[in-house]
UniProtKB/TrEMBL annotation, chain A:
Top-level taxon of origin: Bacteria
Organism: Echinicola vietnamensis (strain DSM 17526 / LMG 23754 / KMM 6221)
Protein family according to the UniProt entry: Belongs to the MreC family.
Protein's UniProt name: Cell shape-determining protein MreC
Residue ranges of the TM segments: 7-29
One Pfam family per UniProt: MreC
GO CC terms in record: plasma membrane
UniProtKB/TrEMBL annotation, chain B:
Name of the protein described by the UniProt record: Rod shape-determining protein MreD
The organism's place on the tree of life at top rank: Bacteria
UniProt KW keywords: Membrane, Transmembrane, Transmembrane helix
Chain segments annotated as transmembrane: 6-24, 106-133, 145-167
Organism, as annotated: Echinicola vietnamensis (strain DSM 17526 / LMG 23754 / KMM 6221)
Length: 277, 173
């Protein structure tokens, strides 16, 4: 017995090494699972406070560009508003609930971001107290950015579109053919559009937008433009590379969108056993 | 190890940590070369430090950095890996006449040749572990090798600059 203990004592460093590595691997696995614990990420209150202090110093460097972006978005919205405002005459009839908007929008600021790893995350300076919830879609004036993974009281952690596990249901605007956008881990400006059948005509420069099928994003938010199309190795689907619309290296302000009826849609699909890709 | 060295080491860990998460996190050359300067901190702790305390330090430091990188566990695993192999590697490359006691194994104390042989394999081991875990389950092995090699060179060069600028000969920080 004593010899066993002595032996164990003599390899204590190795035993500690194995233990610590096991803990680290357990952390990696639990963090990367979809239902992973999200306490230890950059949205916890200490880390968030630290990062937003840093952002207080660095935000001045990007003010010019973010102002320009906001002004552009404003102009676009004003144009759309002018088109939508009804002319006051008796022809107008009130819309019924079929056309009622089911989306809520919020804004937030990016305080932490990375683009060069294989699985990238973004931290935002808004949290549960500002109405941010898990699963909300994130986009900016240019295009979609990601999806909220976890929230604390004042901060939120977002899975960037530059994360190899995130799929976004998208479609080609011209032909309404749908597929899924997924990053392949190589270039932060390009992503793949998957599951587009081979018989579809796709051309360089076609616009790819969100399809609105998976209830995270409303229909029609820009994802990117088609860069190249080839037959690829899969016998059923085309190999499409798209240029992402959002510039991930200069993210400053983003919008969050919440679908009020996501729970209803999800439970309906669960009952009818529809699996969304 | 006297109290002076201990205080300098504790101060050093905070400095390296803050520089890593606030500045170097955003500094990636050509989307390829990362700088994990905190590795240099682990390498420059005094030679006498035992493997067990070193692994605990590496675990805590790696974990803190992981929280800011949103890469939970990856820095932890690679830092512990480096800590475990540091002592055996130091023993292997003992120069004739052995080591002076109470000397941090810095570039200025030990000379370029020894430091190159000491640090490069250990940095390479750390970076290889990091990028291997990061790219696990994909087929991106060629970019992974490029990233590992360029990051090793980058970390080593920045590490040398830091030592020349901020470390004194035969002293702690």
């Amino acid at each position: 017995m004593q010899r066993i203990l002595l032996f164990l004592y003599s390899i204590r460093a190795f035993l500690l090494f194995v233990t610590l590595e096991t803990v680290a691997i357990w952390l990696i696995v639990s963090y990367n699972s979809p239902q992973g614990a999200v306490f230890f990420n950059s949205s916890n209150s200490f880390t968030g406070a630290f990062l937003s202090t840093k952002d207080n110093f660095t935000e001045y460097f990007t003010l010019g560009r973010s102002n320009e972006e906001l002004a552009k978005k404003n102009a676009l919205l004003m144009k759309q508003l002018a088109n939508l405002s009804p002319v006051k005459d008796s022809v107008n009839i009130p819309l019924d609930s079929l056309m009622e908007s089911t989306y809520d929008f919020r804004s937030a600021k990016v305080i932490n971001n990375s683009i060069n790893l294989r699985n990238n995350h973004i931290t935002l300076n808004r949290g549960a107290e500002d109405g941010i919830k898990e699963g909300m879609g994130v986009f900016n004036g240019d295009g979609i950015v990601g999806r909220v993974k976890g929230v604390s009281r004042h901060y939120a952690s977002v899975i960037s579109l530059l994360h190899t596990d995130l799929l976004v249901s998208s479609k080609i605007r011209a032909t309404d053919v749908f597929g899924s956008t997924q990053w392949d881990g190589k270039n932060p400006q390009k992503a793949k559009l998957k599951y587009v059948p081979r018989h579809v005509q796709v051309a360089h420069g076609d616009t790819v937008v969100t399809s609105g099928y998976n209830a995270v994003f409303p229909e029609g938010i820009l994802v990117g433009t088609v860069d190249s199309v080839s037959n690829g190795t899969d016998t059923n689907y085309l190999d499409i590379t798209i240029d992402l619309a959002a510039n991930f290296s200069t993210l400053t302000y983003v919008y969050l969108v919440e679908n009020n009826r996501e729970a209803e849609l999800d439970s309906l699909q669960e009952i009818t056993e529809i699996v969304n890709e | 190890m006297n109290s002076r060295t201990v205080i300098a080491s504790i101060g050093g860990i905070f400095l390296y940590f803050i520089v890593q998460v606030l500045i170097l996190k955003n500094l990636v050359l050509f989307g390829m070369a990362f700088c994990f300067l905190y590795v240099i901190y682990l390498l420059l702790l005094p030679i006498e430090i035992k493997t067990i305390p070193l692994m605990v330090i590496a675990f805590v430091l790696g974990f803190s950095i992981d929280i800011f990188y949103d890469s939970l566990g990856i820095h932890t695993a690679s830092a512990v890996m480096l800590a475990f192999f540091r002592k055996p590697w130091i023993t292997v490359i003992t120069p004739t006449g052995g080591y002076d006691s109470n000397t941090p194994p810095t570039l200025l104390n030990m000379g370029m040749g020894w430091f190159l042989m000491y640090s490069v394999p250990l940095i390479l081991l750390h970076h290889l572990t990091f990028f291997l875990i990061d790219n696990l389950g994909t087929s991106l092995y060629i970019p992974m090798v490029y990233k590992t090699l360029s990051s090793t060179v980058f970390t080593f060069i920045i590490g040398m600059i830091v030592q020349v600028l901020f470390y004194k000969k035969r002293r702690g920080i």
